Amino acid sequence: MADRKKRLLTGDRPTGKLHLGHYVGTLANRVKLQQQYECYFIIADLHMLTTKNTPDDIKASCENACHVVLDAIAAGIDPYKATFYLQSAIPEVCEMNTLFQNLITVPRLERIPSLKEMAASAGRAEMPYGLLGYPVLQAADVLCVKSECVPVGKDNLAHLELTREIARKFNSLYGEVFPIPESLEGEVGTLVGTDGKAKMSKSLNNAIYLSDDAQTVAKKVKGMFTDEKRVHADIPGTVEGNPVFIYHDAFNPNKEEIADLQERYRKGTVGDVEVKEKLTIALNNFLDPMRERRAKFESEKGLLEEFIVEGSAKVREEVKQTVFEMRKAMGLASVWNRMRRKVEKRQKKQQKQNQE
């Protein structure tokens, strides 16, 4: 149909609650895109295993998956229109991963720069086989639901390009099964952490979470890094690169207030206390609507799990059909069917002989 929405796939690993950095980097964009696309959100617990695979990590992923869904809903994703699903609940995607592995070479995977960075950030001296194949499993994720669009930042363009290569090679070898997914490149922002030293991260304990209450936000803002050279309020301070003002620009809609604070900060006529107090107000005003949506969905026990389970069941039926089309195109189904028919013919012949 001409008015059919294109299908979009994106998602998160279930490693914990989402924070303001996630909102700036991905969630805000997803909320906008859901109006234009049929959205599928993968909870990528198999990808999580490349860096977090202890029994405790896996056990925690159940609760974390619900956190991911709840944070997305709180941010504005409509759970009755979007589809959330658990990657490990779709075993057929592992079969697709196996079939795709033979369409790509190890040197091609080794040229993807982000894999080495991921291994280093996870403290891995050597790259696990699963991490090297991470982009191939990503290709299976994208293509299993025949996604036509994938939102990516510059860091992940290489991953999507590999998916496109795999889809083209499969279609060329075996016949047209997959659409060639397009990238949706947008401004994928990053947000410095409250410590001012690195981008906001769960592991660095420098994050303000979407689920933090007002008091927690106030406490974290109070302890934020500012201009380390400014030991007194009457000393002119630096606005550029100052985390407190970065947060003001990102989350405070009152541009006149920001401009006034910046001017007085540069002159040394406003203290960090006032700047932070106004940031606390702005952040809590920003998070309050999310808190209301969160409370609504969190209060219904089992509802988040229901979104995931029903979404996973829906996706699995689609992926079964995709795998059927793959096997048929490759000829794998006919190999098995020829063998099975010969065995059936032989068994019928033996049965007839025994009856005689």
UniProtKB/TrEMBL annotation:
Source organism superkingdom: Bacteria
This enzyme's EC code(s): 6.1.1.2
Coiled coil: none
GO biological process: tryptophanyl-tRNA aminoacylation
GO molecular function ontology, one term from the record: tryptophan-tRNA ligase activity
Keywords: Aminoacyl-tRNA synthetase, ATP-binding, Ligase, Nucleotide-binding, Protein biosynthesis
Protein name in the entry: Tryptophan--tRNA ligase
Family under the similarity heading: Belongs to the class-I aminoacyl-tRNA synthetase family.
NCBIfam families xrefs: trpS (TIGR00233)
A GO cellular-component term linked to this record: cytosol
InterPro entries reported in the protein's UniProt record: aa-tRNA-synth_I_CS, aa-tRNA-synth_Ic, Rossmann-like_a/b/a_fold, Trp-tRNA-ligase, Trp-tRNA_synthetase
Catalyses which reaction(s): tRNA(Trp) + L-tryptophan + ATP = L-tryptophyl-tRNA(Trp) + AMP + diphosphate + H(+)
Keyword Mitochondrion: no
Gene3D superfamilies on file: HUPs, Tyrosyl-Transfer RNA Synthetase
EC category name: ligase
Keyword Aminoacyl-tRNA synthetase: yes
